[in-house]
Amino acid sequence: MRLNFSVVFVMLVFVSMTMTGCLTPIPMDTRVGPISVKERLSLKVAVFIPTPPGYRIFRSFSSSRSPNNQFPAAGPTEASQDMTANYTEALWPWRRELSNASQEAFSQVFSHVTIVSQLPEAGQFDAVIQPMLTEIHEDYYGGAIMWGELTLAWTLNVVDKNGTKILSKKGVLPPHRKVEVSINERDKGEVASESLALVVKEWAQKLVSSKELRDYATQLNK
Description:
CATH superfamily: ABC-type transport auxiliary lipoprotein component
Distance between the termini: 46 Å
Number of strands: 8
């Protein structure tokens, strides 16, 4: 995943703006699409996505590598910054998109899905799912042409109605598409949406394939 600048001047303006907090809203529209499910699990589940959602956003720049890592390491300039405080939900709506994508995907897996921002009381739902992005990494590199990529780290936890753990997974979605860096944030939003959709689809597939979750649903509905 990556973004685009074809002129050194534009590249410098971008680096200056983004590293000093002059950010523009990034449009996202995450669509997960169909999930391969034979039959939905008969469970009333809450999907717990807290406010704030708890992820951290990091950004780095490097002039020492190219998309094929072929740039010579001659005087590389590299900077890294925690951008979490800069990217409010209004600027980069990860929580909104995570909620919408989870509703779309998990509704194909379970009979009843409710998105909640606070941890529900024990017994209120058959199960509570907590899908979480833990870290979002933006990495930019290049020279006259800048490229960008996005990496998402995540966890997925499921507990039963009494708070007992059923499932616990974690993983990293590596960059799946690079794009040239553009002053227009549209490409960046598209890459973010695509990446999130891949993560949420992976979560749904893990839920579908969980024997522990299927056994729990069967026992609960006897």
